Amino acid sequence: xxxxxxxxxxxRAAVTEETVDQFMAIxxxxxxxxxxxxxxPTTDNKAEAKTDEAGDGKVTKNQLKKxxxxxxxxxxxxxxxKEKAEKAIGSGAAS
Length: 95
Known about the structure:
Elements: H1 2-13, H2 17-24, H3 61-94
């Protein structure tokens, strides 16, 4: 244990303000997950779905499930917004 502590203390002593500033600097996030600009595939265009350039050009089954789930969520949000707008118009006309 003392060997580990000694090595840790040596590494910690080597840290400078510049090292801390570099570590804490705001950097662009490199995201390797599903990109937000992907086309949400439907049953008609699964083969035409875009993928990350770094990948092998194929969309995995798990990615398709996630994209379909996102599409369904967006549809529900759009439907709720439409119903809310219709309700607001209906209550405004009744006044």
